[in-house]
Amino acid sequence: MRIQAAGTTRWFVYQKIVIVFIAFIIPLVAMNMWVNYKGMSFTKKAISDSAVAGASFYAKQLDKELYFVRNQQLQFFNDKDLQKLSFQGSRLEGYALIELINQTKDRLSAIQYSSEFVVNAGVYIKEIGKTISSMNGVSESPNYESEFIASLAELTPKPSFYQKEGRLFFIESENNSGIISYIEISVVRLQEALHQITTLYQESEVFLGNKELGSVLSTVKDQRVIVPLLEQMDTGNNVNSNKSQVLRIDGTSYFITTNQVSSLNLSLIMYVNHNEITRPLSQFSFWFYALFVIAIVVLLLYAYSVNFMIHRPLSKLTKAFQMIETDNLNLVIESKSRDEFHYLFHSFNRMALRLKRSIEENYEQKIAIQQSELKQLQSQINPHFLYNSFFNIYMMCKVGDSDSAAELSQKLGSYYQYITRSGSDEVPLYKEYQHALDYCEIQCIRFSNRIRYEYADILDYAMTVAVPRLIIQPIVENIFEHAFEDGMANGVLYIAANVEDGIVRISVDDNGQLVTDEAIEQLEGQLRDGTRQLEKTGLINVNNRLQLKYGAGSGLFVSRSPYGGLRAELRINIEC
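RESULT FIELD:
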């Protein structure tokens, strides 16, 4: 039965579980946050609307009261006694004049008492040269009050109200200033009305004004806020319309509501620290953020529990498999729990033990095979090579070349002594290298010096490196048999060896012309798949021995030689 994996990703199971949990919980938390935010916004708007409604109510009441006073003043001009004094006052005498003046004074007193915002109501009548006041009675003109009012009445253009020396007036004139009616508005009472509006919020302030006149009347102790606020009004924020807004002044946010007082052509502006407006929501905001923090804590606790119960055991099991990949089978996973992972750990320990035993048995078997292959290499002695060598010695003796015959006999004896010895499979690199050179010398004599060889000296630090026995000579033998078999002259064989970065590299090149690229590619494929070859040649045996002993990075590698023939390179990773 084959079990297929769903796929591989860079995500751990632990991360996937946490991400799925987050994907489910985020919509719930987001919806809860949205509902709470909308509730807070609705409540904040309701509080703001309440403040706007309260300020608007007081502003309308003040505007209504002042309109009433102005209407009283305008109706006063229609009084028949006032009109009679204005047109016939100079012709009246005695009781008739006094009666008309008293009746006019009574009407002014009625105006004064009609509203608590009126301090004094008076009229200047040019025809009789007198000033009649509900507070000061009848005075001959000119006097201080008449001159004071006359100076204000001359202002152009005519304002909606008059302000001088801290006093506020409504002034109207008729008959080419023959009658000047004035009503003094109580600044104290207006101040009390503004203070009454500030009771809506503990830290609120109110002032009457506009961008031309500035602050006319206010409850503000710190005037530094009014100036930038009026500048905001002047920069197009249109605070003169009835509305509310939040402005930031000197690093502090203020909630501002504006209402028109048309009777004075002023704006009644109330402002309060925005935190004061939202203070009732502070507790609600606290629990809102507390809920968010709790959700984060729950998420972290869930992630920690998943990490403790699932991720750590899986990581332990994964690390154990990674150690097995490095051929470390001396490991046991301990488990203190009695859950599913306990069964997995126990099964893994049994598997590792069985695998260790199986590998030990297989390794011993491969060692035996390696020894057998070495014996096979030793037994692969070409009888023609031996026959030709003896024939060459015979011919040298025949012609009297005893020195060459002695040298060839000595080389031949060393050669057979080396390949037939039964000892350690490893020898110093310089001995294996010298054996290959002896073989080359014998072959060059056999080929009547039509073929020669060149070699590079081994460096001192590489001479004593231990390498397997009989790994170079089979390669050299293959070249003499196949590269130079057409009887070519001037054949050259090149041998070199070095050790670099823990890797022994032994290269054998020739300048033969027989090998093709297809043959090299086919030979390379046979070397890489050498374990499956039924009939193993000397090259495949060498490759298998190196791979078995030193790992897959070691072995025999063939390619096109820079000299034109075949390059065979032995690589031995001695640091494995």
